[in-house]
Design goal:
single chain, mainly beta, 4-stranded antiparallel β-sheet, 8% helix
Length: 261
């Protein structure tokens, strides 16, 4: 669609199998009309264009340190951590998984699209209050990642700090960015009762996505503010969760990551 007029322009069909097959689509990143990267759940990255023709295939492989890459970039913005393309390289995130030591998992990896090599970035998962809790064992560690052109900025749900890494030097910084509305972070309780899990989510406070505003040169960090939810016979807790229950606050950080609003 044309963003200015709303006019329909074209659509693209991607084959699942065959010479131009991209497999079971998990997510995509569109750099421009000639460079559309589609990730498959089990195989790798397919570079295609608006014709749907597969131009290049980059197989998920092993990093320089022997880590086996997993498909972990999606087009979902729920946990905002899009693929970043910088100087011909693709930077994607890697999730934490039950049974895998966190220190062995790079939070981000970089894929060289020309050499088809994969390199780990040194930043690892920080110590969080959810370590070794049922939540982490089931869901992994949710986080958001933003890129401002020079640095990656990470916001973990259960950490009032943010983490900044330089894309060139890999220098790491941990800086406080708390919400005045969150006095204490508590692990979200996971039970076998699905309704109670969603009730616990509704009543829990945690940090969420972080976004960079290149026009104002500031960063927005979202904080979800839990509140007590009472039973309502007309709605389930799942209904409330999926239909806009959230109270939230936005923390505004300046170019030096100081809170200004």
């Amino acid at each position: 669609y044309n963003l200015l007029t709303g006019e329909y322009l074209f659509n693209t069909v991607f084959e699942k199998e065959g010479p131009d097959g991209v497999g079971f689509v998990q997510g995509y990143h569109m750099e421009d009309l000639e460079h559309i990267y589609i990730t498959s759940q089990h195989s790798g990255l397919s570079r295609t264009d608006t014709s749907g023709t597969k131009k290049q295939f980059i197989e998920y492989g092993v990093t320089n340190n022997g880590y086996h890459l997993v498909p972990n970039f999606t087009s979902s913005s729920y946990h905002y951590a899009p693929a970043i393309i910088h100087h011909g390289k693709i930077y994607i995130t890697q999730g934490s998984y039950p049974g895998v030591e966190k220190s062995a998992i790079p939070v981000s990896v970089v894929i060289d699209t020309l050499l088809q090599t994969i390199e780990e970035l040194p930043f690892r998962y920080p110590k969080l209050i959810t370590d070794d809790t049922p939540m982490e064992k089931i869901t992994g560690i949710p986080f958001s990642r933003e890129f401002d052109g020079k640095q990656f900025i990470y916001s973990f749900h259960m950490d009032e700090n943010i983490y900044i890494t330089d894309i060139e030097t890999n220098e790491e910084k941990r800086l406080p960015a708390p919400s005045k509305y969150i006095q204490q972070l508590k692990p979200i309780q996971i039970t076998d009762d699905r309704e109670m899990v969603y009730k616990n989510l509704l009543e829990s406070s945690y940090y969420f996505n972080i976004l960079y505003d290149k026009y104002r040169n500031v960063y927005y960090r979202f904080a979800i503010l839990g509140s007590e939810i009472t039973n309502n016979p007309e709605y389930t807790f799942v209904d409330i969760f999926t239909n806009g229950y959230i109270r939230f606050s936005v923390i505004i950080l300046d170019e030096n990551f100081k809170i200004i609003g």
